[in-house]
Amino acid sequence: MGRFLTVLLAACFVAATAGGQTTGNPVTETILSGYSARMFASEPVSDSDIDLILRCGIKAPSARNSQSWKFTVVRDDALNGSIIRDFAPGNVLIFISGPESGQQGSFVDFDCALATENMFIAAQSLDLGARIYGGPVGQVNQEKREELEIPEGYRVISILRIGHLEQGVDAVSSASTRKSMEEVVNYRD
Ligand SMILES: Cc1cc2nc3c(=O)[nH]c(=O)nc-3n(C[C@H](O)[C@H](O)[C@H](O)COP(=O)(O)O)c2cc1C
Where are the alpha helices (DSSP H) in the chain? Predict the structure, then answer.
């Protein structure tokens, strides 16, 4: 009986780990099936989802644990629509900002990017759509910082859009392709 149990447990372990480490791992599943949404529905995102997403952003690592980011959550559809084309009512924009006075060689941009990515993945794990925007950042910093109430002395580094996905959008056809492992990975002998 003991031998049978050992064999059974070993078989369960092999089955659980077969096919690499993605099967049944919700984090890697979310990352590997994720994509930048284009088609958003007009359905408000709940405060509790935004709260959880923000906590995931705050949990990001940062150089010397400086955590120098600020997150500005904007639910003003008219204002958001003046920044992002095809903005759907109920979507939320999170503006991720860092200190303007970041010294040369500081990691402010890097840190803010990590927080952005944490929130991007967190949103997808909650079955929400997400998209990172860098295009409008220059104009936002020039013209809309005050209206957006970005904290004094901070500049926007990235914008994260979060919303419910339009039903029927095919995640596979929406996803962009990636370079192959052979193209981007080399193992030093
Ligand atoms: C730093 C950064 C800036 C981006 N800026 C924009 C943007 O201005 N407009 C946009 O539509 N998508 C933007 N994207 C989304 C990318 O186009 C998208 O992540 C990429 O094409 C890969 O697509 P996928 O995430 O669906 O696989 C940006 C992404 C990143 C990481």
Answer: 2-17, 26-33, 47-58, 77-81, 108-125, 137-143, 145-148, 171-174, 181-184
